[in-house]
Amino acid sequence: MKLMKTEDAVGQILCQDITQIIRGGYKGPVFRKGHVITEEDIPVLLSVGKDNIYIWENDGSLVHENDGAEILYEISAGQNIRPGDDIKEGKIELFAEIDGLFKVDREKLLAVNSLGEMMIASRHGDFPVKAGDKLAGERIIPLAIEKEKMEKARETVFGRAAEGSENGALPAAVGGKDAGAGKIFNVLPFHHKKVGIVTTGNEVYYHRIEDTFTDVVMEKLSEYDTEVIGHELSSDDAEMEISCIRKLLDTGADMILCTGGMSVDPDDRTPLAIRTVAGGQITYGSPVLPGAMFQLSYYNNIIPLVGLPGCVMHAKRTVFDLILPRLLADDPVSREEIAALGEGGMCLNCKTCTFPNCGFGK
């Protein structure tokens, strides 16, 4: 790459897109990378402020910004992700191909962004996205970047240089189950879930009050591909709660939600019932408000057994909204991940709720 006066550049090859910005909203290229400059192009280039211009001369040690952006895409875009329409000025965008759960390998994202001269900016992971949603934007900062640095980015993500690379570009990702293996971003599909609901509490079981909790849970489930295959009522007797959970498992439920009885009151036995059926728990309690008394276990390490605290019934957004999408995408939730929800785990109960376009859960 060399610098030339624009008037002397006739016959030379542009090494960058030349952008024109017009007040009123237009921004776009007047010439693309690779364009051979003609005499007629000189006044146009001067009119967009290009008195001097870079001409492409590559000795094999550099990767052009657009080629570098393509490499960023190939090392970051996993399953169910597509690129934008084109790469320009070293920038490429990523979009979701399906409705699903957006996953981000945060360690790899930080590692690539720490290399310098390249950047990847994304939306927050572990939140649902719709087909067509923009997920991330990636860009090479200089006009040309050292090929060695792009190899470093590749090794940062995959642990080694990819085989079969040519001219600094990676081979296109292969579709299928493992297409996203090792990549920074993936969109996991939501799965149809057969849900069982257990409503607990003497006050509901003996008809002292009306059950208003189940309607809220059903409304949350209606946002996804779910089917409620059973609804059991139980008193505060732990053995009855255990029996209800097991009945729903025998019916074929692949997720069970238990409402009520989640506090530390002596009559609240739901946590005990869930632990007994599952043989343990991921957590009882979460650093999220609303949602501190949330419980999560897995039956046979596969089927989520969830204890929903009373706040889910009356608060617009709670810990349930943060965890439910992950359960529906069969994305295992660990105790450490729940503990990490503390920063951003306080809902501000805004007068106008904009969730998920807010800081809750982030």
- Please list the strands of the largest sheet in the order they lie side by side: 15-14-16-19-18-17
Strand content: 25-35%
Distance between the termini: 42 Å
pLDDT < 50 runs, ≥5 residues:
162-177
> In percent, how helical is the residue content?
25-40%
Number of DSSP helices?
A: 11
| Anisotropy-based shape | elongated
Biggest beta-sheet profile:
6 strands, mixed
Q: Total number of β-strand segments?
A: 19
Mean pLDDT: 89
One letter per element, helices H and strands E, the order comes to EEEHEEHEEEHEEEEHEEHHEHEHEEEHHH
Q: For the CA atoms, what is the radius of gyration?
A: 27 Å
Category from helices, strands and their pairing: alpha+beta
Relevant terms:
alpha+beta, six-stranded mixed sheet, elongated, 362 residues, 19 strands, 26% helix
